[in-house]
Write a structure and sequence with these properties.
2 strands
Amino acid sequence: MSRKPGAIQPDGRYFVVKGQLWRCSNPALSDDQRQQLVQMLMEARRAVKVAKATNHADQLRTARAEVDQAKRALGERGPVWWSDGSPDYNRHKAVNTPYAEWYRSLPEP
């Protein structure tokens, strides 16, 4: 069973979904930048949905590339946005990372 979905771990680098760590957006982005990038991401995700529904491979490839570009600009993919040299545990099971004790301390939903 997953613990508290969406919980953000103490250093603010990850949130948890179904026991898996997902990298948070770069907190150094301004509110305007973040809003613009999230809007780009949502538009790209809608384009993925349309491309899948119409079975259009080229549009799907383009839309997925746009999703990736927006997520990288947000800091959720690609190089990490922190500078202390800590490794990236994006998409790792929380119990298999240094955050395991924190994760286990979360209340069950």
